[in-house]
Design brief:
about 300 residues; mainly alpha; Na+/H+ antiporter like fold; about 80% helix; about 0% strand
């Protein structure tokens, strides 16, 4: 058991060293808002789809397809349960704060924080199952998340969902996997090179945003702290318990627990700014949850690997 905790802790610590580099870059002005926005777009539109496609370049395997469908089902249930909890707990008088608390509790950083950890701990199979979790995340975020943040259905767009880069990458990856389509090294190697950027760049971005946040002030926000505790502890433990009760074990279980145990999504701030909610509060919650996840993720993921891995 101790070995699992140490392994996960080591991997998370490695990610936080990269975050620390981003933090220093933010404090020394090597990174700025414009640069970070540009490299975030590169990750979203190029790197993330390449990560997904790279891990779908494999011969068709019915067992892996079954695991993929199980991961999709688990991801959907986890998001639904998170939505119910968020709607029951937070009833702030100020809607611009209420929406941020709910969004942060529901949506985890299942791309930036989870994929690198899934790759390090579980290899290509972890990313294979983690990719479908991201697809479910994006569907829920661009439907319910948009409605939650805006309070208006007019912002919902089927086009945005279907043209989301990660969903397009998943669609192409599925075609490659289901047909066992051969992908020549001329294409596969550049895809791999771009996919390798998925660990360092997002961590630098997270570090940059940490450098802009008043973490001490974030600890003083009682509702924000409750939100973070649910995001980092309650939701992943509920996900673990529910999957264990359903007989789900091994790589699929650990993959979903990693995704569910990640800190609040970076999109919390993006959506808060876009729909005129409390962007400053969103930065505090994202930063606080990211900082505390260095403690909670090794404990929860290590426990999941020991008991159900």
């Amino acid at each position: 058991m101790a070995e699992n905790f140490i392994t996960v802790g080591t991997q998370v610590l490695e990610l936080f060293i990269l975050i620390a580099v981003g933090f220093v870059c933010g404090k020394t002005k090597l990174l700025n808002d414009k640069t970070v926005k540009s490299i975030t777009d590169i990750v979203l539109y190029i790197v993330c789809p390449c990560v997904i496609i790279q891990n779908f370049i494999r011969p068709y395997d019915p067992e892996m397809l079954g695991g993929l469908l199980t991961s999709a089902g688990a991801a959907l249930v986890i998001h639904i349960v998170s939505i119910v909890i968020a709607m029951l707990i937070f009833h702030d008088k100020k809607p611009e704060k209420n929406r941020v608390y709910r969004f942060a509790l529901i949506f985890s950083n299942c791309g930036y924080m989870s994929l690198p950890l899934q790759k390090e701990l579980l290899g290509s199979d972890g990313v294979f199952f983690g990719a479908v979790y991201i697809v479910v995340f994006n569907i829920v975020m661009w439907t319910f998340g948009v409605w939650l943040s805006s309070g208006d259905k007019k912002y919902l767009s089927a086009k945005k969902i279907l043209l989301n880069p990660c969903i397009l990458g998943m669609a192409l990856g599925l075609v490659i996997f289901l047909t066992s389509m051969p992908v020549h090294d001329i294409a596969a190697k550049p895809i791999g090179f771009l996919a390798d950027l998925n660990t360092p760049i997002p961590m630098l971005v997270i570090g940059y945003y940490l450098s802009k946040s008043d973490l001490l002030d974030a600890f003083k926000d009682g509702k924000g702290f409750i939100c973070v505790l649910f995001r980092l502890i309650a939701i992943p433990l509920l996900a673990f318990g529910g999957m264990m009760a359903c007989g789900i074990r091994g790589t699929v279980l650990v993959t979903c627990v990693i995704a569910a145990s990640a800190p609040a999504a970076a999109a919390t701030t993006m959506f808060a700014a876009k729909f005129d909610n409390d962007a400053e509060l969103s930065v505090k919650i994202v930063s606080l949850s990211t900082l505390l996840s260095v403690i909670t993720m090794p404990l929860i993921v290590g426990f999941a690997r020991t008991v159900g891995g």
